[in-house]
Specification:
With 282 residues, the chain is mainly β. Helices cover 4% and strands 51% of the residues. It has one domain: Jelly Rolls (Sandwich), CATH 2.60.120.10. The strands form five sheets. Strands 1, 2, 3, 4, 6, 9, 11, 12, 13, 14, 17, 19, 22 and 24 form a 14-stranded antiparallel β-sheet that branches. A four-stranded antiparallel β-sheet has the order 5-10-7-8, with no helix packed on it. A four-stranded antiparallel β-sheet has the order 18-23-20-21, with no helix packed on it.
């Protein structure tokens, strides 16, 4: 089957004040966006969210290089760490944990990407695990035209990230000056999200123009996908294996069926996901 390009979806602006987000509505794209379930370009200041539980997926926070502040991430596994702009925290929640993510400096706004990556049934109740890369450990690829690719997760043209999630995934942060191309495996879907500027996505005979705050999904086949621009653009490419399993969502739990949701809620209420005091309680 030839590679397909989805319809364009636009970022929806929500919130304001301490927390604002440009959210890509992936539900409009259905299974084509799998395994990504949430894609939010956010800005946050202060501590608007208390500690909260997650289970059944990977909660990922990538701090953009332009972020004025760093990320402080705490969880019920005992981690308490600060990740600077350009770094990433990948939380494989599995059977469940409690975490809290806030600006490390309350006087500095945090600008980042929040994505929820679904886990297949074999990993939905695996022990939780937190992975992290600081800015200096994220490898980069460059070419003579000035294109720059930060290989945050996965690989690109022989450049490989040291971060290894439980299931294959690629996250590329691209400063585009002319063009790059990437290989789409037959079982993967890829999201191209343009943060700023304009870009053209080409796959075989198909092409689609994207502007800032727009996204589309590349899916349905295998082969090379090219992204090009006439002027500098900033974009993200996210690619993962499509998970063809039922998705049940309740609050911050993502499972395959109702009984798994009920079991996760029971674990949380019984303390099976650990404890985490709000920062205000010391």
């Amino acid at each position: 089957m030839p590679i397909q390009l989805s319809q364009i979806t636009h970022a929806q602006k929500r919130g304001g004040g301490a927390f604002s987000v440009k959210a890509i509505d992936l539900q409009k794209l259905g299974e084509r966006a799998s395994p990504v379930l949430v894609l939010d370009d956010f800005r946050v200041s202060g501590r608007p969210f208390p500690p909260h539980p997650h289970a059944g997926f990977s909660a990922v926070t990538y701090i953009f290089e332009d972020s004025p502040g760093s990320l402080r991430s705490r969880d019920s596994l005992g981690n308490d760490m600060v990740t600077a702009p350009g770094g990433i925290v990948w939380t494989q929640t599995g059977s469940g944990l409690i975490h809290e993510e806030v600006p490390a400096d309350l006087d500095c706004e945090l600008h980042g990407l929040q994505i929820f990556v679904n886990l297949s049934s074999q990993n939905k109740v695996a022990p939780p695990k937190v992975l992290r890369l600081q800015n200096s450990h994220v490898p980069e690829w460059r070419n003579a035209a000035g294109d720059r690719v930060r290989v945050v997760v996965g690989s690109f043209e022989g450049t490989v990230s040291p971060l290894e999630p439980a299931e294959p995934f690629t996250l590329l942060d691209v400063e585009l000056r002319r063009e790059i191309s990437f290989k789409l495996p037959s079982d993967h879907n890829a999201i191209v999200y343009v943060l700023a500027g304009d870009a053209m996505v080409r796959a075989e005979a198909r092409r689609q123009a994207l502007s800032g705050e727009q996204a589309l999904v590349v899916y349905g086949g295998s082969g090379r996908v090219t992204v090009e621009t006439a002027h500098p653009a900033h974009l993200l490419i996210l690619s993962g294996v499509e998970i063809r399993e039922p998705v049940f969502v309740e609050g911050s739990f993502i499972m395959n069926n109702r009984s798994q949701i009920e079991a996760a809620v029971a674990r949380y209420r019984a303390g099976g996901m650990g404890r985490l005091k709000p920062l205000s309680e010391g």
